Amino acid sequence: MYNKVVMIGNLTRDIELRYMPNGSALAKSAIATSHRYKTNTGEQKEEVCFLDFNIFGRSAEIANQYLRKGSKVLLEGRLVFEQWTAQDGSNRSKHALRVDTMKMLDTKADSHNVVPQQGGMDNGYNPQAPQYNQSQAPQSNVGQNNYGGGMNSVQPQEYSIPEIDIDDDEIPF
């Protein structure tokens, strides 16, 4: 069996970062993509697809640091079926994207419109930010916790990637 999804789109909301009991980071958000086509009558139509996604590990921390609502991103991963019980006792379910690879597609011009998160730190977009593959991302330290510190607190590493210039007309959907 084969389960692979590649999506290019914009974030519909800011990244929500949490830490699991084992210390691993988990980022949640949603992506919106669109598909334009002509009907038999020649009318232009547009379908929009919204999909929640999850990113784990160091890639989740990077996504939280550099991505904001409206950021353009390429996500590659697999669909998973999530089930839970709502507060009213009803069973709920949805499909979500479990991200393996994330590439930030914003340009420098787009990054100037990003508003940093509250909390005193400038977490705005950095055009020097790397592309992250879940399997290549460094593992989080055992001493870190969801309170932002710990015995083995580590400073973020500096990375450099080439700038990507993609026009909306070049995207095949």
TrEMBL record:
GO terms for molecular function: single-stranded DNA binding. Residues 114-173 are annotated as: Disordered. The keyword DNA damage applies. Pfam families: SSB (PF00436). Residues 125-145 have a biased composition (Polar residues). Plays an important role in DNA replication, recombination and repair. Binds to ssDNA and to an array of partner proteins to recruit them to their sites of action during DNA metabolism. Homotetramer. PANTHER family: SINGLE-STRANDED DNA-BINDING PROTEIN. This is Single-stranded DNA-binding protein.
